Request: fold
Amino acid sequence: MSEHIERVLLSEEEIGGIVSGLAARVSRDYAGKKLLLIGILKGAYVFLADLARALTVPCEIEFLRVSSYRNQARPGALEILTDLSLPLEDYDVLVVEDILDSGRTLSYMLGHLRAKHPRSLALCAFLDKPSRRTVPVEADYVGREIPDAFVVGYGLDYAQRYRWLPYIGVLKLEE
Ligand code: IMP
Ligand code: MG
Reply:
């Protein structure tokens, strides 16, 4: 375990089980549909790769990149950095996100995508911290609800570090 990790919240094995369960539900719900997974960069890249490989239905894959208000001088401003080039009218879109926290990022993303009139639009978040919500957003698929702790690994970063960890860990706070 990394010296910067206080404790492991979800082991690699637990993550595997959660992803299998989500993939089974998504595969069942999207059978016969034209599924497009849209991953939110950067955090969703690991989860999306695992989820897509565990699906038993075909899907297409796109990514959206959104600026992080967390690192901005002017909080509240979110903007799309890399937009989609394909029209969404024909697709059943499933947004894939690493974690649902305040809900601001996903609420903004959903508005942006809804304006492109996909056939359907749903949300899949690997982790959810419901106690942190400031904007009313619920995910249709949630891997695991977690308490209010800052977690890293499995795509999630702290200052761009720890995305590579194969488990979800609680970051040790600096003394
Ligand atoms: P929201 O807009 O507040 O819901 O924040 C969502 C984004 O904040 C996620 O996509 C993550 O990039 C980041 N985030 C929120 N909580 C954590 C955490 O515990 N660890 C790492 N990143 C987080
Ligand atoms: Mg992030």
Summary: The chain has a mean pLDDT of 93. Helices lie at 12-29, 45-54, 104-114.
